[in-house]
Amino acid sequence: MIEYNGILCISGDQLIKTGLNPNGIMSFPMYRKLAYTKKKLEILRQGKGEGNHALISFDSLPPKYQQMAKERFGDPEVESQKEGIMEYLEHDQKAIDFFKLHKVGYDENEKGLPEDIQRLYSNNAAVLNALKKAWDDHVVNISGRNKRPLSGKFWNRAAKAIQNLPKDWQCDLPKNPKRLRIKLQDYIKYGYEEILSGKWGNQNTRIITGEVGEWLVAQWSARVPKVVVSIEQLHALYNKEADERNREAGKMVWKKIKSSVAIRDYIYRPDIQEKWYAARYGELAYKEERTRQHKTKLATFRDSLWYSDGTKLNFYYQDKDGNTKTANVYEVMDVYSECFLGYYISRTEDFEAQFFAFKMAIQTSKCKPYEIRFDNQGGHKKLENGSFLSSITRHGINTQPYNGKSKTIESAFGRFQAGYLKEEWYFTGQNITAKKKESRTNMEFILANLKNLPTLERVKEVYLEKRMAWNNDPHPGTGIPRIEMYRTSTNGKAQEVDFLDMITMFGVTTKDPSTYRSSGITIEVKKQKYEYEVLGADGMPDNDFMRRNIGRKFYVRYDLEDMSVVSLYEKDASGMRFITLAQPYIKVQRNLQEQTGDDLRFIRQMEITNKLQRIANVKSSNELLEKYNLHPNQHGLNAPKPKGINMRKKPVDIGEIEKEVSNMDAMDQANKEADRTLRRTQKQAKKNKIDSQRDFNKKRAELLKQLVNN
Length: 710
Prior knowledge:
Oligomer: single chain
Helix content: 40-55%
Structural class: alpha+beta
Strand content: 15-25%
Low-confidence stretches: 201-206, 401-405
CATH class of the largest domain: Alpha Beta
C-alpha cells in the first residue's frame, strides 16, 4: 500500500484476484461491480500497462475487504505513518546544542537541563522538523484539490504517527491533531524556545525575593502616578528598572526576568496577594474577600494475607413497603485461619462498604496485615486513589478478574453459604452459575411466604449469628476453631496499631483539593456539605492563618464516623504534607430571639478583630507606598480611608466586650425581675379589690337585715 496525492491507496495488482495473482482479496467481477456499477470504489489512478497498476483509495473499500487487506498486508495506517515520518526524520544538531547549553534559574541557582530532558526536547525538534517537511510535500501533492478534508487526514495520521515512533525517537508532542498543528506553527514562529516546558521558566521566581519582591508589590499596588494595568506591563517595567539600576551601579544588581509567568506566579501567591489586594481593588473589596465572614443558622426549635470481596447476602427480606429485596455484604477474611474479620452490609458494593469492613477488620486484629488482595470492582479505585490501602497494608494487590478460583475468599464464602446460610428458608441460593440443585433456592416456597419474609434488621442479626458460628467452628484442615487459630497465631512482620494509627489509616482524603476562603473550607461527602475553619488555642478563629492562606488549596482528610475534626494537607513533589487541623465553622444565631450571650460576645469580638486586621493592612500598605514615593499624599492626592472604622478611636478591649455582654445579661435579669414585681403588684391589687367587695356586701346584708327586723 502506498500514498498517492496524500491519500492511502492499494494497487489493483494487490487487490484483484486473477490467474496471475491468486493471492488477491477480491474477484475481478466484484471489482467491476463495486467500481463501475455501484461506483463505490474511488479509483485515483487508472492502470496504464504492466508495472503501472491502478490505485484505489483504501478508505473506499467495504469494511470486509479493508479487514482482509489488513490481515494480508498489515495495518496500513500504522505502517504508512511510521514509514512516512521516518522518511523525513533526522537529528537536528543545532537543537541538540541549544538544549545542552540552555540554562534555567539565575545566579547561584543557574543550572542546565537534565540529560533526559535534553534528549526529549531534541527529539521534539527533530519530529517537528520532519512534520514541516512532510506538510510541505503534502501541500504540493494536494495542489488543485479539496484541501480541507485532505489536510484533516494528514494531521490525524501525523498525530498517530508520532505515537508509534521507535523508542530512540520518543517525544512528548501533543496527541491531539489540532494542537499538534498549532504546536508546529508556534515552533516555526518562535524556534527552539517554543519546545521548552513552562515549568523551567518558574525557576525565575527564585530571584523574586526581598527588595525585588517588595518593589513589584509596590508597583502593583500603586494608584499614582500611573497604574500598572497588566502583568506584562509590570514585567517590562521591572526589566527597565533592572537595566537602569545595573547601569547606575556599573554591575549586575538586579537580573532581568525572561518570562512574565514568573512575575504572575509571584504576585498571585496567596501570601503576596495579602500585601496588595486592598490597595489595588479597594479596602472594602479586601474586607469582603479576605476577612472572616460570618455564617448564620436559620431559626429552629432538634473503623500473613487477607482477602476481601463483596457478594450478595443470600437472604431475601421484606422492606417497609412490602417489597422483596436482597442486600450485599463485603467481607474481609484472614486466609490462614479462614476467620472472618470484618464485614459491612449495604445495598451496593461501594466505597463506604469497603471502608467500614476494613476498619472493623483492623479493629478485630489490632494490627496491619502484610498483604491484602481484592478485586477491582466497586469502590476500590477510590480506596487506592485516596492512599487508603497503602496506609493499612504493605501490599495491596488486585486479584485477577473473572478468576474466582484464584480468590480463597470465594471458596470459603461458598462453603459458608452452603453450610450456614442455607439453613434459613429465605436463602436465595448461591451464585447464579451454580449447577447443583442443592445450591439453589425453593422459589415456590419463597413466593408462598413473601409476607413472612424477615426484615432487613432481622437478616443482619441472623447473618451475624452465622458469622460467629463459622468463626467458632473447626477449620477443615486443622480441626481447631478458626477464631482460635487466628488468636494463637503470631506474625513477626505484622505491625500493631494504636489509636493514632487508626486515625491516620481511616482518614479519607478528598480526591481534589478545596480552596480555603474567608468563609473557611468546604468539602462534600455523600452529597452533604461540611464547612470547616482553623481555630486557635483559645477556640476562636485563627485569622492569621486565614488571611495568609485565602485562595490556597488544601486536601482534606476526614473520618466518615467522626466529622468533628479534619486535617488539611498540601501536595508537592514529595507527597502529602500535613498543615494543620480544622474544626466545624463557628456559626451564630441569625435571629435575635435565639441569640445567646456567647453569640453576642463572639460577634462583637470578630467585628473588632476584622477592623484591627483592616487597619493593620492599610498601615502596612501606606508605609510601603511612602517608602517608594508612591503614596497619594506625596503627590497632592488623598488616599481613601477604610469605611466604617474610626481610626482615632481606641480599640475596644476584650474585657469591655465581656462587660458589655454581662451588662446585657444584667439588664435582661433586671427587666425580668421588674416584670415579676409588676405582676405580683397587680395580683395583690386585684385580691384587695375582691376582699373589699366582700366586706361591703357583708355589711350591706347586715344593714338590710336590721331594717327588716325593725
